[in-house]
Specification:
Elements: H1 2-30, H2 33-52, H3 59-62, H4 75-85, E1 93-96, H5 103-116, E2 128-132, E3 149-152, H6 160-164, E4 169-172, H7 174-177, E5 182-186, H8 193-205, E6 207-208, H9 224-232, E7 234-235, E8 239-244, H10 253-256, E9 260-263, H11 269-282, H12 289-298, H13 302-315, H14 326-336, E10 354-361, E11 365-377, E12 381-385, E13 390-396, E14 399-404, H15 406-421, E15 428-433, H16 446-458, E16 466-468, E17 471-472, E18 478-479, H17 484-493, E19 498-502, E20 516-520, H18 523-531, H19 536-539, H20 553-560
Parallel strand pairs: 1-8, 1-9, 2-5, 5-8, 10-16, 12-15, 16-19, 19-20
Antiparallel strand pairs: 3-4, 6-7, 10-11, 11-15, 13-14, 17-18
Length: 561
């Protein structure tokens, strides 16, 4: 009986002490609760007031493509992107192109289409995660990595209840949030090398693995899902769409080997004119075709065309006239220092020493390359002005090689070849000039230089409807060059009728460009075609005729001397 009484007393004392400490703990926890609740309520009210303040969206956002048909000037690029992503086995993609041509919108719209197709692996709710590689924070201590993910170890501030128990906590990154969808990584060429290597590993394994010195497989305090993550990794099965304004050779070869490569071309003036017209309509104004064409010539990108229209429309606010005038546009051009781009123009009349070459500049943009040549008595040399004279190569880290430029080498090849094909060439020096001020680099102007020098010596005018590109050898072969498609499109836009290209570059697709493409394998073939004159009604304006073929003005001048 005594033992039972003592047990009841001990139990009562334990309950009293437990209740006391419980009430003390609750009081301590709730001592700041009213103040915290009041602060939280004030912050929520401030946040709601901020969210009620909404400005009207900028015009550039209102004209952003919402349908595939709204993407201007990228029909081939969009078609290629759809072929890569809208199929049973979608691939990783790198999109090259200048800024403001629709790379992000195209990727988003193509994924929207792929979600609706039954043959693609993308579900209806497949995520589209967009990140900019220039703003991705990289921490060498691996505390935070928003792209790949990281582990929040217990030693870090804010580890929470699990951290107090010594449990490391994996934090998923964008590659995991994009699981089952598309990760769009803008400016992928700016990614830190360490993160690039991590990304390549994720692309290879299709999951993210984490490590931590604080993780123990036998720790009973660690939740099951964290054990599973450390054991099996986090899923990261997505398709990468990287966009960059860099050239392909500037990206790591390991990344390029894992991705399909698609090129978005620079917008042409007519594309920018369409964008300007659509922007004016969205702003509630009208833009005449002549004014839209002027905007297309002065703007460098789609965003710039929209900005020009928006500023011009802002000038006319409050007026009854809803038509954007030429005066308003010219004022915008003057304030923004927008200069109209010169339209490519080929020579109207055939003349000795004048040849139209083809080149590529900027972001794979084709252009006409005017060439002029003059012959004077000499010793069979070709002197060239307007080209790059030296090139610098870096074949390996820490090693630099300087050499004569390939453009200068092409001029030397042309001189050697013409001394063999044209006996009288040995008695002349030919000055070949590339007017315009832009330095010429690369071997693709070799054929045009050889034809120009031959024309200057013989006096035979080169057909005015003809353009050409190709590298030449000292034996007279015409060798393949790059950028032939872009060059042919530039010739077609300049209303040229024929173009000579190397036989090794010939493709059936070039037959649909609206220009006669003539593949040649030797310089002799090119010379014979260059001497053939077009019909006057095809290339010459009314009232003008082609200059008659001269026997050899340079040779006659030498005889007179």
């Amino acid at each position: 009986m005594l033992y039972l009484c003592l047990s009841l007393v001990q139990l009562g004392v334990t309950l009293v002490v437990g209740c006391y400490f419980y009430r003390q703990l609750r009081a301590q926890q709730e001592s700041g609760a009213p103040e915290r609740r009041a602060d939280s309520r004030a912050e929520m009210e401030r946040l709601q007031r901020m969210r009620r303040v909404r400005l009207t969206p900028p015009l550039s956002e209102r004209v952003r493509p919402a349908r595939m048909e709204d993407i201007v000037g990228q029909e081939d690029g969009v078609r290629a992107l759809r072929a890569v992503l809208c199929c049973e086995n979608p691939q990783h993609v790198i999109i090259y192109g200048p800024p403001g041509v629709g790379k992000t919108c195209a990727a988003r719209l193509v994924l929207d289409e792929a979600r609706r197709l039954p043959e693609t692996p993308f579900a209806a709710d497949a995520p589209f995660i967009e990140m900019d590689a220039t703003t991705v924070r990289f921490d060498e201590r691996a505390i935070a990595d928003p792209l790949i993910g990281s582990v929040h170890d217990p030693i870090y501030q804010g580890a929470g209840q699990l951290g107090v128990s010594g449990v490391p906590q994996p934090k998923p990154g964008a590659v995991t949030r994009a699981n089952g969808g598309v990760l769009f990584l803008d400016e992928i060429g700016e990614l830190h090398p360490t993160q690039m290597n991590k990304l390549l590993k994720v692309l290879e394994d299709r999951l993210v693995r984490f490590e931590s010195a604080y993780y123990s497989p036998s720790d009973r305090h660690t939740p099951r899902h964290i054990h599973d993550i450390f054991k099996n990794g986090l899923p990261a099965d997505f398709r990468l769409v990287g966009a960059t304004t860099r050239a392909p050779e500037e990206l790591p070869p390991a990344l390029r080997s894992r991705c399909m490569e698609i090129f978005f071309r620079p917008l042409e003036p007519e594309d920018l004119s369409r964008i300007a017209g659509g922007a004016a309509e969205k702003a509630g104004f009208s833009l005449a075709p002549e004014e839209a064409e002027l905007v297309g010539r002065c703007a460098e990108s789609g965003r710039e065309a929209v900005n020009i229209v928006q500023m011009a429309a802002g000038l006319l606010r409050g007026q009854n006239d809803k038509r954007i005038s030429r005066e308003a546009l010219e004022w915008v051009f003057e304030c923004g220092h927008h200069a109209p781009r010169a339209l490519p123009e080929a020579p109207r009349v055939a003349a000795p020493g004048r040849v139209t070459g083809l080149a590529v500049h900027g972001a794979h943009e084709g252009a006409l390359l005017p060439i002029e040549a003059a012959a004077l008595p000499g010793r069979g040399r070709i002197l060239v002005s307007g080209i790059v004279c030296e090139e610098e190569l870096s074949p390996a880290p820490g090693r630099t090689i300087r050499r004569r430029s390939t453009a200068q080498a092409s001029a030397d090849n042309a001189a050697t070849l013409l001394r063999r094909l044209l006996p009288e060439f040995k008695r002349f020096d030919v000055h070949v000039n590339f007017p315009g001020g832009a330095p010429v680099d690369g071997p693709s102007a070799g054929l045009a230089m050889a034809v120009a020098a031959w024309s200057a010596v013989t006096g035979a005018p080169v057909a005015a409807d003809l353009a050409m590109t190709g590298e030449i050898s000292v034996l007279g072969d015409v060798l393949p060059v790059g950028g032939v498609g872009e060059k042919l499109r530039a010739a077609q836009k300049a209303h040229l009728k024929r173009a000579l290209i190397p036989m090794g570059n010939d493709q059936a697709i070039y037959r649909r460009l609206g220009i006669e493409v003539i593949p040649v394998s030797s310089v002799s073939e090119a010379l014979a075609l260059a001497a053939s004159q077009p019909r006057p009604q095809e290339t010459l304006p009314a009232g003008r005729s082609a200059a008659p073929l001269a026997a050899s003005p340079a040779l006659e001048k030498e005889k007179a001397l």
